[in-house]
Amino acid sequence: MAYVLVHQKVNDFAKWKQVFDEHAPVRKDQATSKGGYVLQSADDPNEVIVMLEVADVEKARAFTQSDELREIMQKAGVASQPHIHILELADRPSA
Fold this sequence. Notes:
Distance between the termini: 19 Å
CATH architecture: 2-Layer Sandwich
Helix content: 25-40%
Strand order of the largest sheet: 2-3-1-4
CATH class: Alpha Beta
CATH topology: Alpha-Beta Plaits
Order of helices and strands: EHHEEHHE
Strand content: 25-35%
């Protein structure tokens, strides 16, 4: 199992979330996203972490490096350089 983890600051969570939701078909098609989680910092709702399960690591990697994603992030109001990580599941502890 593989994941894309994105940590970013946004200008306005509600605006960012709307663009993020509209972009779902592209994530599914190009990044092979199977869904995941959107998390907010308990201290700052504009600090956002997205974790998506992906079916194909190389397609996900290409998507995260694409001009299209940079343009979407800019449109959504991403305020800082996002930290993007491609991860593979190493363990699933029970507690």
